[in-house]
Amino acid sequence: MRLAPERCLVIAMFALCGCAGSPRRPQLADPQLAKAEPVTAEPSAGEAIAEARCDRQVSCNNVGTDRRYSSLEDCLTRVWTGWQSDLVESECPNGIDPQQLDACLTDIRVLECSVELESLDMLPACAQLCSAEP
Fold first, then answer.
1. Do residues 117 and 127 touch, judged by C-beta distance below 8 A?
2. What is the C-alpha separation between 75 and 45, in angstroms, rounded?
3. Is the pLDDT of residue 32 over 90?
4. In terms of C-beta density within 10 A (0-12 exposed, 13-18 middle, 19 or more buried), how is residue 53 classed?
5. Residue 120, number of CB atoms within 10 A of its CB
6. pTM for this prediction
7. At what angle do helices 72-83 and 45-59 cross, to 10 degrees?
8. Residues 6-19 pLDDT 10s
9. Is residue 14 part of a domain?
């Protein structure tokens, strides 16, 4: 009887990891790490805007060798540093309106490549990101 390649892979994985034995808990190098707050996967509004701007730069062919930004990381770093003062979330006492943020991100991503986005105020959805309600 011949086993399918997928089953062989599963059997090999069990054999390599010793899954038949008792499970071992990883040892933490620093017990304080166990008390650390979990990292949130949700980016801040500023990070989301930087990502949208760099997505736009990629689609406009401005990222890569001999381009405006050498890499996506270069774009994110430069956009985040250059625009940090444009969106200070602490200036929104009731937080960021998630619907306005979504509209802002969409407006950034679909903006024509010929338009230079110099400020968030250029896009109405981005100029009104603060939530009116707590």
1. no
2. 17
3. no
4. buried
5. 19
6. 0.63
7. 130
8. 443 334 333 334 44
9. no
Residue 74 within a domain: yes
Q: How far is CA 105 from CA 21, 82, 90, in A?
A: 50, 17, 19
On the CB side of 11, CA atoms within 13 Å amount to: 6
Structure tokens at 66: 């001999």
Average pLDDT for 58-85: 90
DSSP designation for 120: G
Q: Please give the angle made by the CA atoms of 27, 30 and 33, to the nearest 5 degrees.
A: 95
Q: What is the number of domains present in the chain?
A: 1
Contacts of 63 (CB under 8 A, 6+ apart): 54, 57, 69, 70, 71, 72, 74, 75
Query: Does the residue 25 lie in any domain?
Result: no
**59/48 Cα distance (integer angstroms):** 16
pLDDT level of residue 95 (50, 70, 90 thresholds) = confident
Task: Please name the residue that has the structure tokens 């599963």.
Answer: 10
Q: 76 lies in which domain range?
A: 45-127
**What is the total residue count of the chain?**
134
